[in-house]
Specification:
CATH topology of the largest domain: Arc Repressor Mutant, subunit A
Number of strands: 0
Low-confidence stretches: none
Number of domains: 2
Helix content: 55-70%
Largest sheet: none
Order of helices and strands: HHHHH
Distance between the termini: 79 Å
Strand content: under 5%
Number of helices: 5
Mean pLDDT: 85
Oligomer: single chain
CATH class of the largest domain: Mainly Alpha
């Protein structure tokens, strides 16, 4: 006949199978609470993309204080397309990175 295992033995077996203990996590939670809460996720800064030919043209015109609508008229595209280029490449850039 198999004897019932104690709660202590059962918990030790569970920690061995599933790893870790709640004690470690509770101590980390206390430390984070003292510091003001869980640390915020910080994305890594992105490098600026290399400018395409069209993006380079748009950048040059933006640096000369042209409006998006005027650039769109000259290039024969919609203002929305120019706005997307501005957002995608982070324009205007003072120094061109080609």
């Amino acid at each position: 006949m198999k004897m019932m295992e104690s709660a202590k033995d059962s918990n030790a077996r569970a920690r061995k199978i599933w790893g870790g203990s709640t004690w470690d996590r509770s101590e980390q939670a206390k430390d984070n609470g003292v510091k003001g809460g869980r640390p915020a996720w910080q994305p890594e800064p992105k490098k600026p993309m290399k400018l395409s030919a069209r993006a380079s043209t748009v950048n040059k015109l933006l640096v000369k204080d042209w409006k998006v609508v005027d650039i769109a008229d000259v290039l024969g595209v919609s203002h929305q397309a120019i706005s997307q280029i501005v957002k995608r490449y982070g324009l205007p850039r003072v120094k061109e990175t080609d």
